Amino acid sequence: MINYEENPEFLNDFLAYIATILNKSTNTVKEYNYDISHFLKFIKYKYKMVNIKDIENIKQISIKDMNLDTIKKISLQDIHSFLAYLKENYNSKPATLARKTASIRTFFHYLCNKTKRIPNNPAQDLESPKLDRRLPKYLTLEESKKLLETASTPKPKKSNNNHDNSARDFAMITLLLNCGMRLSELIGINISDIDFENRKLNVIGKGNKERTIYLNDACISAIKNYLEVRPRDSVKYNSRDALFLSEQKKRISKRTVQYIVKQEIKLADIDRPDKYSVHKLRHTAATLMYKYGNVDIRALQELLGHESISTTEIYTHVDNEQIRSAVEHNPLANETSLKSKSKTNSKDNYNDTISNE
Known about the structure:
CATH topology of the largest domain: hpI Integrase, Chain A
Radius of gyration: 27 Å
């Protein structure tokens, strides 16, 4: 939760703008608050407005008393210094720095262009860090089947209070691997969101946007099997419509789902289970659909809820087997006689040259 009492008034006004006018989700607003408050604490440290010598203690600085006169002094160089501080002290990756950059850019755009509280925008020419275009990590088709089989297997009870959650865990992993949904979308599913007749459900995705996810036979079957054993009694009032429940009979949390997925991957004895996560299952779903389902890139973009097609394009990669197959099926692959003769002649000529020397 955001402690608004720790923020200066102009920051709280900005957060209200983000939440209402830009219609950002609660989690996104929290990220903006974290990013901007951290930045302002760094500014107070850099401007020597506090008696803190150790840069590691920046987060302890209070920004409650910060005013717009200080904000007006901030330069583009100050922002660059903040990003350098993050990289040096937190080893922040380009993706993290890009998010911080976007937050700072939006913040100053609000103060300068939207509310005219400051005369100049120091972030106007702020560039985003160049992102590494790495291929996403994903499970193979065989590993995915192995994970589903493991998840469907009943686990031994740890105590008398624990009950078998295999139907629930199998349903969650089935949805993640078949639909490519985000973790926040999974835990946010309500029973009333599911349309069994038309085989679809509505979820609230990134940016608080609603989208439709279509369900295949595996998803429908897994959900129905789980609903047969889903707790009905003593469910917390605000979780009665939640599809997935924890053992405390309330809507399951992100952390619990992350723990379950990691445990199931470990039990499935998949190579290097530490490198896989819930989000990697989303990568897996997208990769398998593109690789085996002959899915159009635009359809995949819509399915995954990506705002930009460039985000979806990371799934158009091909594996080494496809590259090898492409080379082997080159129509010139069998034209070896001339090459062999040329190679032999070249080798003979080279040997003759060496002997003459």
